[in-house]
Design brief:
This protein is α+β, with helices and mostly antiparallel strands. The chain has two domains: about 160 residues, no CATH class; about 140 residues, no CATH class. The protein contains ten helices and 14 strands. It has a seven-stranded antiparallel β-sheet with strand order 2-6-7-1-5-4-3. Helix 1 packs across helix 4, helix 5 packs antiparallel against helix 6 and helix 6 crosses helix 9. The longest helix has about 35 residues. It starts with a strand and ends in a 10-residue tail after the last helix.
Amino acid sequence: MERAYKYRLYPNKTQQTLLEKHFGSTRWIFNYGLEKKIKTYEKIKKSINCFEIMNELPKLKKENKWLKEVNAQSLQMSLRQLDNAYTAFFKKKNRFPNFKNKKSKNSFSIPQGNKIDFEKGIATFIKIGKIKLIIDRTFKSKIIKATISKNRINQYFVSYTTDNKKNPIPKKVKEKTTIGIDMGLKDFIVISDGRKIANPKFLNNSEQRLKILQRRASKKVKKSQNCQKANFKVAKLHNKIKSQRSYFLHNLTYQLTHENQVESIAIENLNIKGMMKNHCLAKSIGDASWSEFVRHLTYKCKWYGKNLLILGRFEPSSKICNVCGQIKDNLKLSDRKWTCKKCQTEHDRDINAAINIKKFALSPALSGVEPAEMPH
């Protein structure tokens, strides 16, 4: 099982220049390979693989001497990534790969020769040398590859993909050790045991300041230094919101997967892409970042040996009374509480939904059927 560890890098000016050359060269070779694939397919109706383009690298280095300054492995990895994107498109798993530009994500991978000294806080890379980094956690697993990236506010990071040989075995699904989770907008999640985690609404809290900075940036002369400074402030605030959201999601999912009394977690398979088409809710759903929450919960359940039970998206979890099973068809989104006409039980809409999610997820597990597979 693979695990990734991400650290903040602090390169000096010389190293920053070298890293920028790597970003530019890997981007250029990606575009070169994509153009060659498109033209070849148009001519002979066949696709060429990354190894055929890799064979051209010695010739390309003679024609473009600046390619010699970067790590050859990084150029090869860029072509491999192109091959993966191209294959994913034909398997209908992704969109057709686009040509990269300077505004695209800046990153490149190094598969070999990566070392990290946890005591001194130094990372070593081929053709780049030693770079200082902040150590917040350590690992003993074998490094498969290192990916260096830069964000919009010129912060550098390295992500080590490691081979973790330990693969925890999930325990049996039991009713006592299972919780149901209902995702929402008023409360971020509601758990079947009655707990409610408030929605932090990071974008909403910073929206007023963001509007001011965007308004100032729009009034600057395009491509001027003042315009770049104003845009940098906008990007800095966006990065702050992203960091706040990431910190919140990591802490929450870590707590959920480390509770001693919890061995199984049940969630709904929401159609988040479809819900984002609702212009009234799109911004709130994007701010809540449900997709990222599910992604974090998925891989952490796999890491720590927890069961993740995925419930079908068409189950009416909010409308069913968890006591007697009576369905309230006319339940509106604005109805936060309702009373069952059959058993007279008063329900909190979200807690009732979380309890029903747990019940629906347990029914196949208790009858001997395997828990739902975790999405990849």
